[in-house]
Amino acid sequence: MREDIPGRSNVQDTPELLAYYRRLETLNAGALWTVANEIEPWFPKSSSIPTIWRYETLRDLVLKSVDLVTPEKAGRRVVMLTNPARRHVSASVGWLYSGLQVMRPGELATAHRHSASALRFIMEGSGAYTVVDGHKMTLSGRDFVLTPNGTWHQHGVEESGGWCIWQDGLDIPLMNALEANFFEVHPDMLQPDMYPVDDSSATYAAPGLLPQGSRWDKGYSPLFKYGWDSTYESLQRFARVTDGSLFDGVIMEFVNPVTGGPVMQTIGAAMQLLRPGEHTRAHRHTGSIMYQAAKGTGFSIISGRRFDWKEKDIFCVPSWSVHEHGNASASEDACLFSFNDLPVMRSLGLYREEAYAPDGGHQIVETVQ
Ligand SMILES: [Fe+2]
Ligand SMILES: [Fe+2]
Fold it and tell me: Fewest CB within 10 angstroms: 12, 97, 129, 343, which?
């Protein structure tokens, strides 16, 4: 790709040059100017495509997996959400992976740990639990749970519970891109509960309070579960005293209560509330984001394409794609749960953000779905 711009590669092929390139290739070498403009674009060019995964379409297929494979055979019984242009790395957007996992009452998946950081957002069912390094957590709809990198974790549903479906989010593709991915199955297949149930929440979830002398030096949050009720109440309280973000409405990040930093080293997460009728302004930034509509109905316009969503629909915003969100209801609020790779962008000094238009305008919608 030639560019007639000073400082950019603009070399015309000649028979002599082509022969030279072939000779370099035989020596596992190459001429940088043949690829320089592609590998150093003027701005980030995501290969991910803005995509929506509609829950009402996928739910039956997720349930069908129960008839087809057992958790023992599958390891994890999950329907992956694959971005059409990122299938080869099993990514949903950028270097993030996501999937829908289903479990029947009494089922459990064996304990394991991996380099990838992971989270779950509970979509339906009752009696689900996760154990992280011996800390058992009980889970309900719209609860957000961490299984940080390197921690032993296992998931299950109590005999007395109902069929459960949740969204998994991991950075498996990033770990593979960095060639740093390890996976281990627990030597005993299951880990024992070593602490009182829900002790992580009892210790670290009190607003503005930490146990005296708290010490926590791990790179992830000691609070593993962020319950929906307190998250939603916090957003409603905050909404009473703020105009919110121009681009995101009333948005709060899930944080490590000890440091105030992101919940995990490579994955951040947030919940945002769009007031009735709210339509945010458009912006773009580095970093990939997966969204799940946690409440209500609305739409997001991503790279000029409008995606209408309702509760439990999942969609992605690729890096540097212009996006804006809207609440379709004039009377009810709408909430979006999201997870992202922004901690990676920020810790590597790569975060960049800009408004779509100086006057804060909206995008022109090219395609309505
Ligand atoms: Fe896992
Ligand atoms: Fe954004």
Answer: 12
